Amino acid sequence: MPHSPANPTHPHSRLWLLSLLLAVASAAVAIGWIALPAPENQMAAAATAFLDSLPPPLRAKAALPFDDKARQDWHYIPRDHAGIEFTQLSDAQKLAARQLIRSALSSQGMNKVEEIMLLDSVLLELEKGSGPRRDPLAYSIAIFGTPGTDPWGWKLEGHHLSLNFTGAGESTAVTPAFLGANPAEVRQGPRAGVRVLAAEEDLARELLASLTPAQRKVAIIADKAPGDILAAPGRGLDEIAAAGIPFSSMDAPQRKLINRLLSEFAGNLKHDLASRELERINKAGIENVRFAWMGSDRRTEGHYYRLTGPTFVIEYDNTQNNANHVHTVWRDRERDFGRDLLKEHLEHGHGKK
After folding, report:
1. Is the domain of 245 the same as that of 118?
2. Same domain, 78 and 148
3. Rounded-to-integer distance, Cα 126 and Cα 136, Å
4. Which end of the chain has fewer surrounding CB within 10 Å, N or C?
């Protein structure tokens, strides 16, 4: 068993102690000694540990005021992103950053994030330096406000990733959440066959194939797919119509597929966070959720679908690079960047009883 570093104030020592405490806590949870902390507590603890691992110059880049405009300036293209980039972190600091990401994501979600980052290595090889900067470490974490002190938030962002979390009181807003993959399917090299966002496509295709001719006439709303998601940065959700076939017009197996699709997107989050989001969708009226398809039903041709409900918009677009370049997004009509959540929090006395 490894022994602890000699200097208890050194960042490596703090990380070692954090890892030990997490291991002890996990064991205690497994045998029923203690209840697992709420996701809010886990995220605040992990964000604090990450900031504590950074020397002052790096901490100043990573820690921003809650009202910094960068908090709501989201995108998924290669560009400069707010916060501190993984390229600037030591191995110990990278570990602390990943602990923060793991505090919000399930193993499924964490695997997707890491695979999306690795796809930049694939693009680097395919493009031979002819494209924009490609680096699997060119991803940034920014923390807004003081973790655990209302309100606060954090984001992970880079090429084909934008995950945004906003905490207020005992709740957390989890959108906008963007995941993309280029190539959608790696077709050469040592990673050939990898499809990071396979389930998002395959479940939707299974649903489309199950529709009767009459149902398809309602579900397929255009012969051509849009060139990208409609709920892109800078666009409101009021413009995105709740079109397509409603849940209430589907049979039992089709409804099961809708629920599996919703769970695939929500399931990128830790169980408690995912359960809350699915509960909100059901409470707002699952019968009002609609599935719309645009474009071809062939894998090699441009296609798009969206799921819409009273509280959310989910989109999948695969039109670029001969339909081998996927963009997905999950946005909330009420809680993007914690909008209504923050309003409720202020109206109820900052969560204090």
Report:
1. no
2. yes
3. 14
4. N
14: alpha, beta or left, given left = phi > 0 and alpha = psi -120 to 50?
Answer: alpha
> Does 301 share its domain with 266?
yes
248 and 232 in one domain?
Answer: yes
Enclosing domain of residue 14: 1-36
Indicate whether 94 belongs to any domain. Answer: yes
pTM tops 0.85: yes
- The C-alpha atoms of residue 277 and residue 347 are separated, in whole angstroms, by 22
Q: Which residue's structure tokens are 């691992």? A: 53
Q: What is the pLDDT of residues 8-32, one digit of tens each?
A: 444 444 445 555 544 444 444 334 4
**178 Cβ neighbours under 8 A, 6+ residues apart:** 74, 76, 160, 161, 162, 163, 327, 328, 329, 330
Nearest CA to 139 out of 126, 124, 120 is that of 120
Are 14 and 113 in the same domain? no
Is 353 domain-assigned? no
Residues 286-331: pLDDT tens digits? 999 999 999 999 999 999 999 999 999 999 999 999 999 999 999 9
pLDDT at 349: 58
Task: Tell which residue, 108, 119, 101, has the closest CA to residue 46.
Answer: 101
- C-beta of residue 294 within 8 angstroms of C-beta of residue 272: no
Number of domain units in the chain: 3
Q: Report if residue 76 sits inside a domain.
A: yes
97-138 pLDDT tens trace: 999 999 999 999 999 999 999 999 999 999 998 989 999 999
Please indicate, yes or no, whether residues 256 and 147 belong to a single structural domain of this protein: no
Q: What sections of the chain are H helices per DSSP?
A: 11-30, 39-52, 56-62, 91-104, 107-127, 198-210, 213-219, 252-266, 271-285, 320-323, 339-347
C-alpha to C-alpha distance for 272 and 295, rounded to whole angstroms: 35
Three-class DSSP category at 82: coil
Is the domain of 134 the same as that of 214? Answer: no
Six token digits for residue 220: 């397929």
* 55 within a domain of the structure (yes/no): yes
